[in-house]
């Protein structure tokens, strides 16, 4: 904030100073201050439709197995959609399309977007579909919405995501499944008895789900441990970053900054109004935990990893023209975005490193232009490895085909309200939380540009530039 003190300046009326995308209202009189906020060029393009984030909400993110334990995924998604309806007041038939992201699907509600929309009271005339792209599933839901609006197919789209880790599908073994299907087709008693007699004890062993890569059979935590080792990220560095995340999240929660969180009356239980995984500890306590994946010498522990989380999110995305016509004051412009992918064996979690320079180039910006950074925190080791990769000319030249490094986000701009390590990480829902947080931080901090970046299973990643809406 630059303050210019004007003495003996007489102006009889208020007026506005307009500079590109930002508008500043000032009133000048004798001994009056004019306050002018730092401004940069807007990313608006004459031939490109402006697409805006009108509002974003989420249920409280809860550790799996706690208050949400007896629900189903569509219950959480429905609560988020109802919260969005309540917060925006948008008519239930004014939305053109609904898109939801999820990772581990409940087989009874495979298109959870449709089931949640119907349960929330949206018009049954509104189409809905579900997408999956691991931890960037709701990012994909949002950018799909952006694409539909940019193409002129829609004016208003609700995007969101949900994940429910308290109750995940557990399958019979493949041999048992084949036997059961054959039993269903058997026509005689003899055929049925023969099939039943073929069942062995080993057939009854269930197939348990795992957060692992199909292509490599390696768990994500194991990959994070190897990545941290490859970039020389120490256990102390990881614990310090995790402690920072929890401390900042607690501070933001206590200050009422997490305005996207809605209260949710859990059927048969209490009203939930805040995230329950925020747990500031101490370096001494964190140091006592044993490695969770690579034992005994690994550095990834339960304390410096994101935890299994239940939660849902939802955002209202519209063309600027439609939003203003309906009387809304948007929160931010959704600008350029990219998706990237790389080797899922050795570079599984480096999505932010690859996506950040690409999205900045698309937008014509540099790291210095970004006022707010929000990166997904899968593991502290993953975040620290990305930051070291982003600060390495050697890595940029060797693996990315770039002449030089992109650089690292300044600490004072990075994940200032906590992140997935502390707030929680419902796989399919985190992307909307990141984008909404950027919009709220830009409003709070007076910045103009924000950048979201995230890694995902399969060695994929996403980044998006968000521009503050003029206040």
Automatic annotation (TrEMBL):
Phylogenetic lineage: Eukaryota, Metazoa, Chordata, Craniata, Vertebrata
Name by which UniProt lists this protein: Trifunctional enzyme subunit beta, mitochondrial
NCBIfam families referenced in this protein's UniProt entry, alphabetically: AcCoA-C-Actrans
EC number(s) per entry: 2.3.1.155, 2.3.1.16
Native organism: Sphaeramia orbicularis (orbiculate cardinalfish)
Catalytically driven reaction(s): an acyl-CoA + acetyl-CoA = a 3-oxoacyl-CoA + CoA; dodecanoyl-CoA + acetyl-CoA = 3-oxotetradecanoyl-CoA + CoA; decanoyl-CoA + acetyl-CoA = 3-oxododecanoyl-CoA + CoA; octanoyl-CoA + acetyl-CoA = 3-oxodecanoyl-CoA + CoA
Self-association state and partner proteins as the record states: Heterotetramer of 2 alpha/HADHA and 2 beta/HADHB subunits; forms the mitochondrial trifunctional enzyme. Also purified as higher order heterooligomers including a 4 alpha/HADHA and 4 beta/HADHB heterooligomer which physiological significance remains unclear. The mitochondrial trifunctional enzyme interacts with MTLN. Interacts with RSAD2/viperin.
Molecular function per GO: acetyl-CoA C-acyltransferase activity; acetyl-CoA C-myristoyltransferase activity
GO BP field: fatty acid beta-oxidation
Keyword Lyase: no
Gene field: hadhb
